[in-house]
Amino acid sequence: MSSNKSKKILVVDDEVDILELLKYNLKKEGYIVKTVTNGIDAIETAKDFCPDLVLLDIMMPHQDGVETCRQIRELPELEHTFVIFLTARSEEYSEVAAFDIGADDYITKPIKPRALMSRIGAIFRRKESNSKENAIISVGDLTIDKSSYTIIVKDKKISLPKKEFQLLYFLAQNPDKVFSRDDLLQNIWGTDVYVLARTVDVHIRKVREKIGKGFIRTVKGVGYKFEMN
Hints:
This protein is an alpha/beta fold. It folds into 2 domains: 2-131, Rossmann fold (3-Layer(aba) Sandwich), CATH 3.40.50; 136-226, Arc Repressor Mutant, subunit A (Orthogonal Bundle), CATH 1.10.10.10. The chain is built from 8 helices and 11 strands. A 5-stranded parallel β-sheet has the order 2-1-3-4-5, sandwiched between helices. It has a 4-stranded antiparallel β-sheet with strand order 6-7-8-9, covered by helices on one side. A hairpin with a 2-residue loop joins strand 8 and strand 9 (156-159). The protein is globular.
């Protein structure tokens, strides 16, 4: 529990009973917790609170969770904040939209507190593991700086959403090695999260739009690789 004391979690849901349940269980684990009931308040609170993680419902008044997540991903001060959707929406298209907009996990209600605490703990452990690495990778006109989660392309500094950056960094760490979509899902999204294979394709396309098409090559019928030349 002591390792959780400095970690801050913002819970966003329009059902007061759910907010109280989550607040109780999270505080019992040692987290610092704030709650709000809609997406607009979530953005304003997050700017000051700077949470390590946001638990986010989709169906809410004033502003839904998908739009709220999109705005969170655009705030520089929240670039390292995790977002977990916790929602009654179980349709595949809702899940795809959530991951495409930058979610780290997608959990459907009803809430199982012990399982949820386990998923949150797993996400924080991945963050701590990743933070032990600090490297700059330079290939031609491309520089990837893990310490600041930024890239430089032809002297232009670009900020990538977290999953796009992690995907690019992972491939660049393993140049000329081909990874299947399943390999990338496991290494970037982890085994605790169910993500559709097409999510990898979407993220690869977005990365290519920002860095150019010359670095990540599609190996037909197999997957993707990062080319050094």
